[in-house]
Specification:
Elements lengths: L13 H26 L4 E5 L5 E5 L3 H24 L3 H21 L9 H57 L30
Antiparallel strand pairs: 1-2
């Protein structure tokens, strides 16, 4: 009977899954033991079943093997971080070339260092400037439009406040009686004749 190839997916049937787990677990533990004996290797194997049951094998002390692994993993992590922080020589050269290219492009955009440029390079620079100017103008027009909208909104707000203020003034005029200037009393002016005798000379006897 030809044995078919097992598909690598979860076994849905609980009984079949438990039988397969037991068989392969025992086979894995056996292989770990054989590897440690035949090759004089330090082997540690930990298995947890779906129910949380622990199965383990260690050619020496499991705790010492785990500590050794943790130390090695920590050293490897530190070494990898150190390597990633130190760019290789090739990366440094590439970075220098990119910086130099950006500097040349910046100078051309400023109108400097154009003598060694060909017609094609000058055309590319001109096209780049035109694209940049288009974006700059679009952004400027957008900001101007927003500013105008804000001014219009402020104008509408002031007009509304003015309208309300005028309504308040009109209501005030309607509720207060018109002020009338009290009549002035006629001042009677009487002419008083004053008799004055003016005598020049010695007094009469």
């Amino acid at each position: 009977m030809v044995r078919g190839k097992t598909q690598m997916k979860r076994i849905e049937n609980d009984t079949s899954r438990q039988v397969t787990f037991s068989k392969r677990r025992n086979g894995l533990l056996k292989k770990a033991f054989e590897l440690s004996v035949l090759c004089d290797a330090e082997v540690a194997l930990i298995i947890f079943s779906t129910r949380g049951k622990l199965y383990e094998f260690s050619s020496s002390s499991l705790s010492k093997t785990i500590e050794k692994y943790q130390k090695r993993a920590k050293d490897m992590g530190a070494k990898s971080a150190e390597i990633s922080l130190q760019p290789s020589k090739g990366n440094t050269v590439d970075m220098e070339k990119k910086i130099e290219h950006f500097e040349v492009s910046r100078r051309r955009l400023l109108g400097e260092g154009l003598d060694p440029c060909s017609v094609e390079e000058l055309q590319q620079t001109e096209n780049q400037l035109e694209r940049s100017l288009t974006k700059i103008r679009a952004r400027k027009n957008h900001l101007i439009k927003e500013h105008i909208e804000r001014l219009k909104a402020e104008e509408r707000k002031l007009l509304e406040e003015r309208r309300k203020l005028l309504e308040v003034i009109e209501r005030g005029k309607g509720s207060t009686p018109a002020s009338a200037e009290p009549p002035r009393e006629k001042v009677r002016t009487e002419t008083v004749d004053v008799e004055t005798e003016l005598f020049i000379g010695p007094p009469k006897r």
